[in-house]
Amino acid sequence: MANHKSSEKRIRQTEARNEHNRYYAKTARNAVRDLRAMTVKAEAEAMLPKVAAMLDKLAKNNIIHKNKAANLKSGLAKKINAMA
User: Fold this and answer.
1) How confident is the model at residue 13 (pLDDT cuts 50, 70, 90)?
2) Which DSSP category does 62 fall into?
3) 46 by DSSP, 3-state: which?
4) How many alpha carbons fall within 13 Å on the CB side of residue 70?
5) What is the CA radius of gyration of the chain?
6) CA 48 to chain centre
């Protein structure tokens, strides 16, 4: 258990940050999943910039790695371009 005021505060801050980061990462994963499940190309093309922006923001804030964001965006773009 923490013995110092500063370490108790760090624990509180870390818990708050983890909750915040977990929420946004989960929201982005759900958005990616929903985009992958789309079958209408026009709808998917309209949603892609929103999902890409979400991934970029997460990468900028180090919630996910920048290469992971790039790989996800690339894969989604390929999938949408391959739609009939």
Assistant:
1) very high
2) T
3) helix
4) 4
5) 17
6) 13
